[in-house]
Design goal:
alpha/beta, Spore Coat Polysaccharide Biosynthesis Protein SpsA, Chain A, globular
């Protein structure tokens, strides 16, 4: 069982409205990511913080919600919040920020296949296109302790980089793995790409 984690606790200050609720192809960012991850992940955990009261009613039934008590500490703290709530039954987890809504379901399925067939020494399975890595990142349960041990000032990427020699890359034809919507201009570019 692989848990899916959507990091949606940020203030969305540059966007001016909660990114989790922005529309992409007729779905909210959080709704689409929940659906796509649900293809291979159970449970899906959405981490809320800022705007929790506005986002919560838009999260599909059956999705687990974790609340980051101090979202100002940044994205790592949201990942740590979800990992602290991880079921003992989980063999691994996949995580992605909510502002990366465009990843395809087939990419997630390809990651899951690679995760299930991985070499026992592999800790991470990460999508890649043209040599660039993207989201979601899939990791084994044992690596959760490494993320939980990071200090508040650290970033999750420090753990990913530490184990680059124990990472399996899945080459995909999916530019959605790079989508990162931080401000209105980036959102407008995304919307033009689907029109």
């Amino acid at each position: 069982m692989i848990a899916g984690i959507i990091l949606a606790a940020g203030a969305s200050s540059r966007m001016g409205t909660p990114k989790a609720l922005l529309d992409y192809r007729g779905e909210t960012f959080v709704g689409r990511l929940t659906r796509v991850l649900s293809a291979v992940c159970d449970p899906v955990i959405v981490v809320l913080g800022y705007h929790a009261d506005r986002i919560r009613p838009n999260i599909p039934a059956g999705v687990q919600i974790a609340v980051n008590p101090d979202p100002d500490r940044g994205q790592l703290s949201s990942l740590q919040t979800a990992l602290a709530a991880l079921s003992p039954d989980a063999s691994g987890f996949a995580f992605t920020p909510v502002d990366s809504p465009a990843v395809g379901e087939e990419t997630v399925r390809a990651l899951e296949r690679a995760f299930e067939e991985r070499d026992p020494s592999t800790l991470f399975v990460i999508p890649r296109q043209d040599g660039r890595r993207g989201h979601p990142v899939m990791a084994t349960r044992e690596i959760a302790a490494e993320f939980l041990a990071l200090p508040p000032t650290a970033q999750a990427s420090e753990v990913v980089h530490r184990f680059v020699d124990r990472t399996h890359y899945v080459d995909v034809d999916d530019a959605g793995i790079f989508t990162d919507i931080d401000d209105p201009a980036a959102y407008q570019r995304l919307m033009r790409s689907v029109s």
